[in-house]
Every structure is written in C-alpha cells, then in structure tokens.
Amino acid sequence: MRNIQDGRRPVRDEDRRQDLTEIHEERRNRELRLQSRKKRKRKRLIIGIASAVGTLILLVVLAILFVRIGSIDVVGLKYKDKSEVIGLSGLQMDDSIFGIRDKFLRENIEKDPHFIYVGWKYKFLKNVIIEVEERRELLLFEFLNTYVIVDEDLRVLGHISRSDEAKYPIVRGINVTEFVLGEVISTDETYKKTALKDVMAALKDSEIYETVKVIDISNAGRITFSLDNEMTVNFGQEYDAVKKLKWIKVIRDTVTAEGYSRGTIDVSSVTAPVYKPEREESDDDTADLDFDDQGNIIIKGDGDDETGEG
Predict the structure, then answer these.
(1) What is the rounded CA–CA span in Å between residue 142 and residue 145?
(2) Dihedral angle at the C-alpha atoms of 194, 198, 200, 202, nearest 10 degrees?
(3) Widest CA span of the chain, in angstroms?
(4) Where are the alpha helices (DSSP H) in the chain?
(5) pLDDT digits over 137-177, tens only?
(6) pLDDT in tens, 50-64
(7) In the chain, helix, strand, coil percent, each to 5?
(8) Per-residue DSSP letter, 304
C-alpha cells in the first residue's frame, strides 16, 4: 500500500501520461509556430528579391529606351579631325549607350592606322567621349605614281598621288621590298632603316624639320638632306643627331643673313661644322666658313689658320 501519510497525492500513471502528452503537444505547437514564421520570412525574402529583380529589369529597359547618345566627342587628336574617328567608330546619334562595345570600337577605329584606340566613357548627360592616340605623318617614299606616307617608326599610314605636293621630306636611297598599310616597311637594308629611324626621332620635333625636302640615305655613313632654300646638308652618320640639327639651324640662318644661298652645310663633325658656298669656275678662291661654339662665323686673317679680327 502506498504511503499517503505525507499529505501528497499519489501520482497515477494516467496523470503522468497526460502530462507528457501536454508537454509534447506544447513543444510541437512551438515548432509549428517557428516553422510558420520561417516560411513567412522566406516568402517575404522571395518577394523582396523578385521585386528587386523586377525593378532592375525595369530600370534596364528604361535605360535602353531612354539613355541614348546625344553627342560624340573625341580626345587625343593633334592632326586629324574628330569627324574621321566618329565616322570610323560606327556610333550614331540616338544609339543606346548599352550597345557600345570596346572590341568593335577598336576594330572599327584602327582600320585607319593613323589612330590607336584607347577607350571610351559616358559623360552625363548623353555625351560619349572616345579617346585615341594618333600616329603622325612624317615622311614620304616614292612608289610608282604615288608617295607612300609613313610615321617615325616607318609604319605605312596611307598614300597620295605623285601629282600632289610633297608635304613631308622624301626618303631616297633605301630599297623597300614591301609596303603594307598599317605595317612597318619591309627592307633588306635594315641598317639604313635603323639609321633613318634614329635621325627621325630627333628631326620630327626640331626647328629644321619643315625645311627638309629630301633625305638621301644611299650611304648610311654619309646621310644628306636637301633643304627648301636649295642648300645641301652633309649630315654624316645618325649619331649626335640633336646637336647636328641645332647646328644646321644656326648655320642656315647665319649664312642666309650674310647673303649666301645654296652651298653645303657640313655637320658630319659636330665639333667642326662648316659652310661651303656654291662655287662657280671663276670663284675657286671663295673661302669656306667655319663657326665657333656660339654659331658665329670665324674670321681669319690673311694667311692665318687661327681666329683673328679680320
């Protein structure tokens, strides 16, 4: 018999089972409520993502419909007109900016070897800016009835008719085996090609460049120029090109001011530049003109080899 003297009611098996059932039921209800909350959160998340994606798609559609090219500009040009680059690019006013592709811009623009495509950017509002670098036309090679135009690297940029005025110095005395648009000239006389490039690196930005009409490199050790005033320049080898070009400018200006024309400027030695006047048979005693470090004519006394007062 169970002891009930302590005043507590005996716990029956039925009561214990009922308590356990209630506990399990409560736990199950909590789990169901938790699952329900998770489902609601997941549903809200899915709706939020779907709404964001829908909004993004709508914005893209609106951008495609309304964000279009209103103007096109080109930066990086020095010699050519921007209309040439714009025409090559294939871009049109009112095109969508989302249709612009670097690959196609590069392929289109670089069809003309004058231009090197760098990139593009969109500037609010509706302004597309194309950036390029430009190869400069510097020299001409005679080929059949045309002048082939090249840059300082001797890369072929185009050609003009021989009937047109030669705007740049004409190169003679080097055997060119092939001219290909956009490619550097091919020659079996590579040493002359190297010498010419070295001279052009200095000549292109010098004050004398625009006065040079012909560069003869038949003998790479004795390069000669023909100038626009019919003077000839014995340039010698390609070494010390910058110093030689400065001497040419000084001597040309000095002897022209003294009334001389034609003749030969010899700068093959930068330490002893000489101007040799054009001589006729009756002028055999006409003296050559030497120059000091300042570009002044050295005046020699009769029979003297040293500088004198005259």
Answers:
(1) 8
(2) 180
(3) 163
(4) 13-66, 82-89, 102-109, 190-203, 241-257
(5) 999 999 988 999 999 999 999 999 987 888 999 999 999 99
(6) 888 888 887 766 666
(7) 35, 25, 40
(8) -
Give Cα 192 to chain centroid, integer Å: 26
Residue 182 near residue 228 (C-beta atoms within 8 A): no
Query: Strands across the sheet with 127-134, in order?
Result: 71-75, 127-134, 115-123
User: Which residue, 116, 124, 72, is CA-closest to 95?
Assistant: 72
Taken as a whole, the chain contains a residue count of 310
Question: Which residue is associated with the tokens 């592709």?
Answer: 101
Average pLDDT for residues 92-98, to the nearest whole number?
Answer: 85
CA distance 287 to 274: 11
Q: Report, in angstroms and rounded to the nearest whole number, the Rg of the chain calculated over CA atoms.
A: 42
CA 158 – CA 88 distance, rounded (Å): 16
Residue written as tokens 């020699």? Answer: 300
Cα–Cα distance measured from residue 36 to residue 40, given in angstroms and rounded to the nearest whole number = 6
Asked if residue 171 lies in contact with residue 215, where contact means CB atoms within 8 angstroms, the answer is yes
- Burial zone of 22 (CB within 10 Å; 0-12 exposed, 13-18 middle, 19+ buried): exposed
**Residue 144, token pair as written in the block:** 């059949």
* Separation CA 139–CA 86 (nearest Å): 26
Nearest alpha carbon to residue 182 among 257, 98, 95, 111: 111
Strands 176-178 and 146-150, by their bridges, are unpaired
Residue 115 confidence class, pLDDT cut points 50, 70, 90: very high
Whole-number Cα distances in Å, 92 to 68, 73, 100: 10, 12, 10
Q: How many helices (H) and strands (E) does the chain have?
A: 5, 15
